[in-house]
């Protein structure tokens, strides 16, 4: 007798519904007891934590409650950038998470909100855009979005804390470790994004995280957009110039009649080629160039980085095949660059059969 199978989406819905009912039961008991949680009710949190750990699913459409996220400290940053900062927290009493909030500064890389969102602050606009894209993503090599949490009037995006941090630091600390598996996984995540019509827009080693098992997770969707999206201001240089020039496709740096070209899947592929160089050398692209204006001239001229000749680069996976792929990703004509699916297939073919253990 055949047994019926359910889709991954159906399973996720069923698990989410079950966890929602458990949360509601817990909340009713809290209200009955005047919001005081006796020790015996900690089992509810333990059940929810176990379900989340097993499924990676957690229902929080209305945001987290105070007892779901604890041990937070806005003053203790674990990551700080121009447009946002991150700090740690504890989820359901046992899972380490990262809470990211966006700075409400005037020097903003985004255009003002368009019709329909009048009066919305720029920080709120940025956060809403990032969440709208991120929450739809579900892939082994995409950093999961858990939910939103409000702390002291600050809205934070919550995601799992990834043990090894960013891939560029991970690679720099491991000169004897192959990065091919990481590159294959990033390519897999990228082809998933492009298949959904999502352009990452800021792919670099800093925005790729590495788990304790040595697996890659693409993160930071603050500069991402949908292929058919039009509400970021097409005349906003800040929107188009967001991200680091060392990884940026040259066509994005040339305005035509004061209009900046849109980011595309091909510009993502260009950035991926730079990531190949970054992870196999443990250094930034054009690391020897320190002057920003000189770097801009180099990128606009179409000059490619020189091939590293060190043994470390070869050990990390920069074979002839992988270097040829990186160069193809840097084609000046965006239409000549490979697709994410092509990149994934070529990297899979380049991984030695013996490379089965993770570094």
TrEMBL record:
Pfam families: PK_Tyr_Ser-Thr. One of its GO terms (molecular function) is protein serine/threonine kinase activity. The keyword Nucleotide-binding applies. ATP binds at residue 100. PROSITE patterns: PROTEIN_KINASE_ATP, PROTEIN_KINASE_DOM, PROTEIN_KINASE_TYR. Keywords: ATP-binding, Nucleotide-binding. Residues 72-351 form the Protein kinase domain. It comes from the Eukaryota. InterPro entries: Kinase-like_dom_sf, Prot_kinase_dom, Protein_kinase_ATP_BS, Ser-Thr/Tyr_kinase_cat_dom, Ser/Thr_Kinases-Pseudokinases, Tyr_kinase_AS. PANTHER family: PROTEIN KINASE DOMAIN-CONTAINING PROTEIN (PTHR44329:SF214), SERINE/THREONINE-PROTEIN KINASE TNNI3K-RELATED (PTHR44329). This is Protein kinase domain-containing protein. It comes from Botryobasidium botryosum (strain FD-172 SS1).
């Amino acid at each position: 007798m055949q047994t019926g199978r359910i889709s991954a989406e159906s399973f996720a819905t069923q698990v989410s519904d079950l966890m929602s009912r458990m949360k509601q039961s817990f909340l009713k008991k809290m209200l009955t007891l005047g919001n005081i949680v006796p020790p015996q009710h900690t089992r509810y949190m333990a059940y929810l934590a176990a379900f989340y750990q097993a499924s990676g699913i957690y229902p929080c459409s209305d945001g987290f409650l105070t007892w779901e996220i604890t041990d937070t400290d806005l003053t203790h940053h674990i990551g700080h950038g121009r447009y946002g900062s991150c700090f740690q927290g504890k989820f359901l009493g046992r899972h380490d998470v990262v809470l990211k909030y966006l700075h409400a500064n005037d020097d903003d890389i985004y255009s003002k909100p368009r019709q329909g969102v009048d009066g919305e602050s720029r920080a709120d606009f940025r956060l809403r855009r990032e969440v709208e894209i991120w929450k739809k993503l579900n892939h082994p090599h995409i950093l999961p979005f858990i939910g939103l949490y409000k702390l002291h009037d600050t809205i934070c995006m919550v995601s799992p804390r990834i043990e090894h941090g960013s891939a560029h630091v991970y690679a720099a600390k491991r000169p004897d470790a192959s990065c091919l598996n990481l590159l294959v996984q990033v390519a897999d995540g990228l082809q998933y994004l492009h298949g959904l019509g999502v352009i990452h827009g800021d792919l670099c080693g800093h925005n790729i995280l590495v788990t304790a098992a040595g697996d890659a997770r693409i993160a930071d969707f603050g500069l991402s957009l949908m292929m058919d999206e039009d509400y970021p201001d097409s005349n906003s240089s800040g929107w188009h110039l967001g991200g680091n020039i060392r990884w940026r496709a040259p066509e994005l740096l040339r305005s035509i009649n004061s209009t900046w070209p849109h980011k595309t899947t091909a510009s993502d592929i260009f950035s991926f080629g730079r990531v190949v160089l970054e992870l196999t050398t443990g250094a930034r692209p054009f690391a020897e160039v320190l002057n920003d204006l000189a770097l801009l001239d180099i990128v606009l001229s179409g000059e490619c980085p020189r091939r590293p000749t060190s043994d470390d680069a070869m050990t990390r996976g920069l074979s002839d095949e992988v270097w040829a792929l990186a160069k193809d990703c840097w084609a000046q004509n965006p239409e000549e660059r490979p697709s994410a699916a092509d990149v994934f297939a070529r990297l899979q073919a380049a991984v030695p059969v013996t490379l089965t253990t993770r570094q």
